[in-house]
Design the sequence.
């Protein structure tokens, strides 16, 4: 009797944990499910209440963002910036990681933890300085400036990620190769590098994803030519001033853009008001206007309001 009761409790407990797991997974995946379904809905269906789960799919949202909004241009920007910064980061971080893992030099651990501390500094806290540097060098809204910034930002992260993989490889393998006549570089290229390939790939993937989704630096350091996908999706929202209140409107979807950005789809659009004749620029343009005004003030010039 006791054994059967124990089995019953064990069965109920196991099913309860299964239900809790399913509920947690569903809660986590629900926004993505809503995004995926909304990308193929019409405007009315997107904001219908209660939500519409059975509908006639439409590709109108994708046609709008690909044809009318030229979203592929911004996706190309994201691809160029993410690939270039990832490749350069890995190429620079490999010898640096090997040095930290194999050689002894003064302040090695202090420098390593200094890199870690730099990763804790929010990027938004230095965006003013980066903005003025970009303006001064004529590199505002360029691919090269974003690539360099992401490169400097990700090198410490890559070093910390790959250092453990190199240290896990027995140094005796390299020493054996050098005893047989191989140089240190040859031992690294023929032995260590192939063995750390898994860690190298994992680091590169994480860096690429981080750069691809980065928003704050790209938001303030680009305008049109180098604008990336995450900032472009934010630009779909415009601010409108109506009867003393700020109202958000969207003419194309977050969602279809999000689908192209992360291979998932969502559309979020508010129907425009045809009677509106006052429109303010997007949030990013407002922020850039603040930056421009601040720079004019620091340069001693007076600005006029159009």
Sequence:
């Amino acid at each position: 009797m006791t054994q059967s009761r124990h089995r019953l409790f064990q069965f109920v407990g196991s099913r309860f944990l299964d239900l809790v797991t399913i509920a947690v997974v569903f809660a986590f995946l629900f926004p993505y499910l809503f995004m995926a379904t909304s990308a193929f809905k019409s405007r009315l269906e997107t904001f219908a209440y209660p939500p519409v789960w059975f509908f006639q799919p439409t590709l109108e949202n994708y046609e709008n963002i690909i044809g009318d909004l030229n979203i592929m241009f911004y996706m190309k920007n994201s691809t160029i910036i993410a690939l270039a910064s990832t490749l350069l980061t890995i190429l620079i971080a490999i010898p640096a990681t090997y040095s930290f893992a194999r050689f002894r030099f003064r302040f090695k651990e202090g420098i390593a933890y200094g890199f870690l501390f730099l990763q804790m500094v929010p990027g938004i806290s230095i965006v003013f300085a980066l903005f003025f540097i970009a303006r001064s060098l004529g590199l505002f809204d360029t691919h090269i400036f974003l690539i360099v910034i992401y490169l400097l930002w990700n090198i410490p992260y890559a070093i910390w990620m790959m250092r453990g993989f190199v240290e896990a490889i027995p140094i005796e393998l390299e020493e054996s190769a050098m005893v047989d006549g191989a140089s240190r570089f040859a031992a690294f290229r023929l032995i260590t590098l192939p063995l750390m390939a898994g860690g190298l790939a994992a680091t590169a993937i994480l860096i690429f994803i981080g750069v691809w989704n980065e928003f704050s630096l790209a938001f303030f350091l680009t305008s049109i030519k180098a604008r990336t996908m995450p900032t472009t999706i934010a630009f779909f929202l415009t601010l409108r001033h109506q009867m003393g209140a700020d109202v958000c409107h969207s003419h194309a979807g977050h969602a279809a853009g999000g689908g192209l950005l992360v291979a998932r789809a969502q559309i979020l659009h508010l129907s425009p008001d045809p009677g509106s004749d006052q429109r303010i620029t997007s949030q990013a343009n407002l922020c850039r206007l603040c930056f421009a005004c601040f720079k004019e003030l620091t340069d001693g010039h007076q600005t006029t309001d159009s």
